[in-house]
Specification:
- The protein has helices spanning 2-7, 33-41, 52-65, 74-82.
- 44% of the residues lie in helices and 0% in strands.
- It has four helices and no strands.
- α2 packs across α4.
Length: 86
């Protein structure tokens, strides 16, 4: 999460984007219980464990949507799991 905040830049001020030398394409989506469960329900993740292989699978699928900034989907995955009980 720290890397996301420091590397990504958004208009809302959530991500500070002060480290401009690292491209957002290098970031990985944080994988926790909530984002993993939602990703499975959406068909973005088939691996049952939340481990390195699952992270790679999720990263590859998110990069198909946006190879330049795949981490922008983090809040959506997390929020659907935590706030919407998806």
């Amino acid at each position: 999460m720290f890397l996301r905040w420091m590397i990504r830049h958004d208009q809302r001020g959530v991500d500070l984007g002060i480290w401009r030398d690292i491209p957002t394409a290098k970031l990985s989506c944080p994988l926790d219980v909530h984002s993993g469960n939602v990703a499975r329900k959406l068909g973005l993740l088939h691996r049952k464990q939340n481990d390195g292989k699952a992270l790679l699978e999720l990263d590859n699928n998110l990069r198909e949507f946006d190879p330049i900034d795949p981490v922008k989907y983090d809040f959506a995955l997390f929020g659907l799991g935590v706030f919407e009980n998806f």
